[in-house]
Amino acid sequence: MEEDIAKVLISREELSRRVAELGAEITHDYEGKSVLALGILKGSVLFMADLIREIKLPLAYDFMALSSYGASTQSSGVVRILKDLDRSVEDVHILIIEDIVDTGLTLKYLKENLTARNPLSVKVVTLLDKATRRQVDVFPDYNGFTIPDEFVVGYGLDFNEGYRNLPYVGVLKQETYEVN
Ligand code: IMP
Ligand code: MG
């Protein structure tokens, strides 16, 4: 597994430091409120588990699953809800937790879909932002790291469901995912 990694982009220590900062910022911004942390399966799971323990607020969590890439590394632009929320979100402050915002297509769809359910607010925290790849006008409210346009895996992010359990974010060697 590690032999497929070209380089470590964000180390375990950097992840942990930045996640603590994000948690403190969110705690501060939502003072006096409670939040619904909404993890987007499956990539956000490791980030979410660490982040919510740094958020010192009343908090519930739930998950949604959306289709984005399937087995490839290219966005299809088609978003489908594979698993929806368990409850109504009226009168709830929703904090979407994403692993990475790439084209922004997934997030744009999701924000519109959730806003239509009349929550008190919808904000987004993403671990990674590939800002140069954005195709639609959508921005995370909190961002861990802005990264270059390289395919990354680890700390929840996958290629073909693999590499999610790496404790760091690494760049996958091109020969691992290029089909000739
Ligand atoms: P978007 O709709 O193009 O913004 O796609 C976002 C989703 O694509 C993320 O939630 C990831 O599942 C996936 N994705 C985008 N870039 C990467 C990457 O570099 N590594 C792993 N997954 C990625
Ligand atoms: Mg994925």
UniProtKB/TrEMBL annotation:
Residues 15-159 form the Phosphoribosyltransferase domain. It is found in: Cytoplasm. Pathway: Purine metabolism; IMP biosynthesis via salvage pathway; IMP from hypoxanthine: step 1/1; Purine metabolism; GMP biosynthesis via salvage pathway; GMP from guanine: step 1/1. The keyword Transcription does not apply. It is an enzyme of class 2 (transferase). Purine salvage pathway enzyme that catalyzes the transfer of the ribosyl-5-phosphate group from 5-phospho-alpha-D-ribose 1-diphosphate (PRPP) to the N9 position of the 6-oxopurines hypoxanthine and guanine to form the corresponding ribonucleotides IMP (inosine 5'-monophosphate) and GMP (guanosine 5'-monophosphate), with the release of PPi. This is Hypoxanthine phosphoribosyltransferase. It comes from Candidatus Desulfosporosinus infrequens. The gene is hpt.
